[in-house]
Amino acid sequence: MKLVKLLANLGYGSRKEVQRMIRSGAVTDDTGRVLGEGELPPHGRIRVRGEELDAPSPLTIILNKPDGYTCSSEDPGDTVYDLLPPRFACRNPGLNPIGRLDKDTTGLLLLTDDGKLLHRIIHPKSHCLKVYHAILDRPLEGHEGELFASGALVLNAETKPLLPAGFEPRSEKQALITLHEGRYHQVRRMFAAAGNHVTALKRISIGGLHLPDDLEEGEWRELTPDELAAVFA
Ligand code: URA
Q1: Could you give the CA distance from residue 40 to residue 44 in angstroms, rounded to a whole number?
Q2: What per-residue confidence (pLDDT) applies to 75?
Q3: Which residues line ligand 1 (CB under 6 A)?
Q4: What's the CATH class of domain 129-206?
Q5: I need a labelling partner for 104 at 20 to 30 A (CA). Which of 70, 154, 182, 197 fits?
Q6: Has domain 60-124+209-231 been given CATH number 3.30.70.580?
């Protein structure tokens, strides 16, 4: 790959803009030597205005999603892409959420530009279980666990029953829900089917990967190889 193409794919600008950047001397190696268009040192040695290059593809990031942000770049209003460096929205291949969260759901969100990885994680056969912490409007009634585990619950406007889901009460109005699949508004609609209403929802784990305590709401970072392995553990 040529330097121009690499920088354009990482979202630093159009090919023309990147060419201009290179010609202006803004792209150097780690010794400060100005790079020409025909050069391509190892990724880790390239600097743009003195800064290390963003990570190459394949890239997977972990984000602690705050309330009020949608997961689609096309939605009006705040999106999770607003929490990332602006050039990330121009990367090619682009970053996509691994299992979207509703606008008012918070917590663990992975984004990746690796389509195969995305499908591996969301496919029910991979058994990467998603755990949600739900806060409810009304006290639990005691029948929810059986209903959700039945494999017979059909959500409103659907015909295919849900796969059995895990249920663990945490207090009178709080529970953990474990899902094998990811249907639209699934947890909220499950509780609606049980006669309750979810007032707050947070995804706390995917597979064996838990939302790290030190990742504040709105913060993100690159997923480490150990964390990725934990998703499949
Ligand atoms: N279930 C929901 O209802 N909403 C989410 O965002 C995720 C799972």
Answers
A1: 11
A2: 83
A3: 101-102, 105, 132, 185-188, 201
A4: alpha beta
A5: 154
A6: yes
Q: How many whole angstroms from 132 Cα to the centroid of ligand 1?
A: 8
pLDDT digit string, tens, across residues 172-212: 999 999 999 999 999 999 999 999 999 999 999 999 999 99
Full-prediction pTM beyond 0.90? yes
Nearest to 215 by CA among 230, 203, 229, 199: 203
Neighbouring residues of 206: CB distance < 8 A, sequence distance ≥ 6: 98, 99, 108, 110, 121, 128, 129, 130, 131, 231
Contacts of 95 (CB under 8 A, 6+ apart): 59, 61, 81, 84, 88, 111, 112, 113
Domain boundaries, the chain: 3-52, 60-124+209-231, 129-206
Q: Does the structure show a pLDDT above 80 at 1?
A: no
Domain 3-52 has CATH 3.40.190.10: no
3-52 and 60-124+209-231 in the same fold: no
Atom of ligand 1 nearest to the CA of 188: 3
Point out the catalytic residue in the list 29, 67, 78, 102.
102
